[in-house]
Amino acid sequence: MSTLSGTLADLGRQGFTHHFQVVGHRVRTLDGGGTFGPDQVLIRKWHRFEGVSDPDDMAIVYALESVNGTRGTLVDAFGAYSDPAVSAFMEKVRFDGSGDQ
Fold this sequence. Notes:
There is one protein chain. The protein is globular and about 35 Å long. It is built from two helices and seven strands, in the order H-E-E-E-E-E-E-H-E. It is an alpha/beta fold. Strands 3-2-1-6-5-4-7 form a seven-stranded mixed beta sheet. Strand 1 and strand 2 form a beta hairpin. It has one domain (4-96).
């Protein structure tokens, strides 16, 4: 079973080195790489984590790539504790890659 930290490290080795945050109707890199609308990023991969002993431990990691090649990750809670702003943004982003089923 993969861990959240292990998955983030693996994605970093694959070039997803920036960290994204949803602000309003856009996603921005936390390290100054820019801001992007939902039509300017693609979901390349995603991984969902379910807490074995605690349902509060559910999370989802998105590996995103922007139109200018900026690649990074966006982490959100999964289920009841998910951020509504992240969910609303991600519903508009096109998926073009692979993910957990």
